[in-house]
Amino acid sequence: MDCGIQNGVAGLKMMDGSDAMRLEPELQCIRALLSPVSGILDSHSLMLSLVGEAEDNGATFSYNTTVMGGHIKENRMCLEVFETKCLENWDSGFPSQPDMVLVPNLVVNSAGLSAPVLARRFGGLHNSFIPPSYYARGCYFTLSSTGIPPFKHLIYPIPEEGGLGVHVTLDLDGQLKFGPDVEWINGVDDISSFLDRFDYSVCTSRAELFYPEIRKYYANLKDGSLQPGYTGIRPKLSGPGQSPVDFIIQGKDIHGIAGLVNLFGIESPGLTSSMAIAEYIAARLL
Prior knowledge:
Blueprint: H1 2-6, E1 13-16, H2 17-23, E2 31-34, H3 43-56, E3 65-73, E4 76-83, E5 100-102, E6 107-109, H4 115-120, E7 134-143, E8 167-170, E9 176-179, E10 183-185, H5 190-194, H6 207-214, E11 226-236, E12 248-250, H7 252-255, E13 260-264, H8 274-284
């Protein structure tokens, strides 16, 4: 709560369990922190809105292209760009000749899952500035019934190792979902990372792991009421058993290369803080 207040979150309130359960009758808890200003949004609509606003202000987007690396020439970053479809069947190594070399004034490496891999392919950037990368799959399950959702608020239990715990979220259509869990992924090579060759299927058997976690705060969850939702992959900077690592935002003051900003480990709540990150970069690193 103190951290939230220090960061300007308004209206935070610590509640006894009885007060929290009056607010949410299906909830079971001893104490709860209420954040009345928290909200939800449609992430895809937000993305389209930002794309439209950027294009209205003169930005151009190059779709179906992949930046595979870069090098420094005359104190400028030169990006090696390939047409994505030419890489789809590539299974070993990387093509040697790019389709285009782009020489921008500024490079912001915000490649998400691929950001550390891409940074390692920037000639001139010392490896000591590139953190190790780990990948964690997170599954979501939804309620099979289409009745009134049991909760009206987002419910977050005490965080677990590697994530925020199996929490409750609602979308704009009122659909409730539980998740994500944490499943560490090993053996991810550079090609898989660049081309997003991850398994995004939901293993139905993982629902059995969800029931006991959800029932810690929602005891009335019925057997067989969970159905597969979707999965996501987190770009993590700490592995199993390691202390969490915060976002890493690197500019010239750290790695010494003009015109290059690296964003590493921008997992949840990366979307929530995306515009704040952009403002930070624009104000301090440009």
